[in-house]
Design goal:
single chain; alpha/beta; 4-stranded antiparallel β-sheet; 11 helices
């Protein structure tokens, strides 16, 4: 897989504040690469250095083989950018914005086709101020796709959107990748990264604290899998004794929670249900809690995500 983005020892400070501290990573062609972490982790500073909008204090950055600081004009014709803070004049219509931005590029894609692809055709004559949050984000994605870019930057794309709009945007991101585009996105929503990204770099306080596929991050760090259920009466000691080594049982009233590190061959829920059945223990309201990227973040940093 060819490297579309190469970063080595990227460092950026603002006065006494270290925003990005000597981070290194690559992004492969056709990949959805995510930079995740809380607000203030250094995600936006990193992506702005890649876009050529900020100058690194030190380090090597190559995007599509060029230096963003020295070849910014060339880069703008080959990349699409959706910035964290984006806006348009209130009265500009959807079609007017697309027609205007298309004029900035020598060989833009057909913006009328983008209207259809991104579900904005019915809104073509609607003023920007009258669009919903999700519609505005779809318009910004359309603007980013006008130069037919090889690489698309998406910075905090779904912040402030309701769950339905967020899932719609996720589908659009997958569709963009299906057309051969490489996508580099930042988000502080761990679920978003887990659903979309092929690989994820977790940033905290300007450093990359982990980088791998979401599945590998979850499994390799040994975060817990949990099964909870309620029992009628007291859980017999024989049940706890029969559980595999490495499990931990927590009982609060009639509610039982069983914890285990997620490195097992047999799913915990299968073992628990089989034991409850074989010992004829009456139970109800059984739920499983699978480890996720937020668990990984907590395991790595010792605290929950910061909004």
């Amino acid at each position: 897989m060819d490297a579309i983005v190469q970063v080595q020892g990227l460092h950026k400070t603002y006065g006494a504040t270290v925003a990005v501290e000597d981070i290194s990573f690559t992004v492969g062609e056709g990949e959805i690469f995510g930079m995740v972490g809380p607000n203030g982790a250094g995600k936006t500073t990193t992506i702005e250095c890649l876009e050529g909008l900020r100058k690194p204090d030190r380090g090597m950055v190559r995007v599509l083989g060029v230096d963003p600081q020295h070849d910014s004009q060339t880069l703008r014709l080959r990349t699409g950018m959706q910035l964290q803070q984006s806006n348009l004049p209130d009265r500009i219509k959807v079609w007017e914005a697309l027609d205007l931005y298309a004029s900035f590029y020598p060989k833009p894609v057909n913006w009328r086709e983008l209207l259809v692809q991104l579900g904005l055709e019915e809104k073509r004559n609607t003023a920007f101020s009258k669009l919903s949050g999700g519609q505005k984000q779809r318009l910004f994605i359309a603007l980013a796709l006008l130069p037919d870019p090889q690489l698309v930057f998406l910075d905090e794309l779904t912040t402030g959107l309701d769950p339905q709009a967020r899932h719609t945007i996720w589908d659009l991101v997958r569709e963009i990748r299906s057309h051969g585009k490489t996508i580099l996105l930042t988000t502080h929503f761990m679920e978003e990264a887990e659903k979309l990204c092929d690989r994820v770099a977790i940033l905290d306080h300007g450093k990359i604290v982990a980088l791998d596929t979401p599945a590998n991050l979850i499994s390799s760090l040994g975060v817990e899998e949990r099964v909870t259920f309620s029992v009628d009466g007291t859980l017999p000691p024989a049940f706890t004794a029969a559980l595999s080594t490495g499990t931990r049982v927590e009982v609060q009233g009639d509610r039982v929670t069983i914890h285990t590190v997620n490195t097992r061959q047999v799913p915990l829920v299968s073992e628990v249900v089989n034991l409850l059945g074989s010992q004829q223990i009456s139970f109800h309201d059984l739920r499983t809690e699978q480890p996720n990227l937020e668990d990984v973040f907590l395991s790595l940093t010792g605290r929950e995500m910061r909004e």
